[in-house]
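B., you asked whether I could sanity-check this one before it goes into the benchmark set. Here's the sequence:
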Amino acid sequence: MKSDEEIALIRFAAGVSEQACLAMIDACRPGVSEAEVYAAILHEIHRWGCDTRYPFLSLQSGPDNISWGAPRWTLRAEPPRVLQRGDLVQAEIHTLYGGQESQVQMCVALDPVDEEIRACEDVARQCYEAGLAAIRPGIVFTDLFSAMERPLTQSGCWSKTPLAHTVNYGAWGFTAANREQLINTREEALEVGLDPNVLMLNGDMELKEGMVLELEPNACLGMKRVNIGGIVLVTASGVEELNKISTCVYHTGS
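And here's what the prediction gave me:
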């Protein structure tokens, strides 16, 4: 549970995250390199006097790229990928202010994208809306997770990263739903046959007013993935969204 001061810091960080998302949208267009997008996001965060938490900024692009983490070119001696039409550009942005974090999952589609990506987009948004509807003081984290998992299970999509977590990672939840579709794919060794004992942490944690959560639904079909989400605050009557832009895929044809 956050103090009034901590919530004020998170609200500021959330506002800066919104500005970073706008900077990402402006930077994403065919012919631009991942490095230029990466630089635009971090420039906006630092311009407001904020910092980032490790891994600082996850950024991946492509029409069928479900990998997650730092761009390859930050770790290897290789040129940054250049964006093309049909790509998704996805970033996990960790904005810190006064030690408090607003983490968002921003996804930009360089249209035209295919129907599988559109399907993943719809399911990810359904998961997000299910999470909002479920949150209120008194439920436990597993209740939130189960609500967000249901659209995935019903749609046939799978999910690579957590659907939700507390911002200090005191509780989180993965789902093993529909991962059998990855048999004989390049992700099989990583994602198939997960130990059920490592899919949930502190699922019995009761949600209380003043807690801050990250809703980050991600829906995958095969190697195609859409990840959206942002920070929400548990209130006395339910929930308040502190981020908006990153909770939907932004489509651009320019």
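One thing to flag: The first helix runs from residue 4 to 27. Otherwise nothing jumped out at me.
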